[in-house]
Amino acid sequence: MRFDKRVTFVSETDGYYDPEKGEWIPGENIERTLPCNVSKLGIDRTNQIFGQIDKVMSVIRLQQPYYKDFKHLYLDDDNEQTYQPKRQSNYRKGVIFVEGEV
After folding, report:
1. Is-above-0.90 flag for pTM?
2. Which superkingdom is the protein from (predicted)?
3. For every one of its 102 residues, what pLDDT tens digit does the chain have, with 9 covering 90 and above?
């Protein structure tokens, strides 16, 4: 299996109030980029996992499991198109299902 694409996980730190400056400091985005393999999920498997076949689902497979919480993710250097995970495998945290064709 080739891990020829890159997925970037984006998490956000909490903002805080700075009493010395007298203003709210917003949280920062933390990005972590990892190699991945992306493929389209078949109709039969989509029906087994999600119970409906009218949605196009894609599977992102990682070399190593990713356990940290993340807000959203995007693929390669396309920061415009973000994906929300629909499900992350409980058995192997390196498999993430997203809606849409990637």
Report:
1. no
2. Bacteria
3. 789 899 999 999 899 999 998 999 999 999 999 999 998 877 777 767 777 667 777 888 898 888 888 888 988 877 778 888 877 666 666 788 887 766
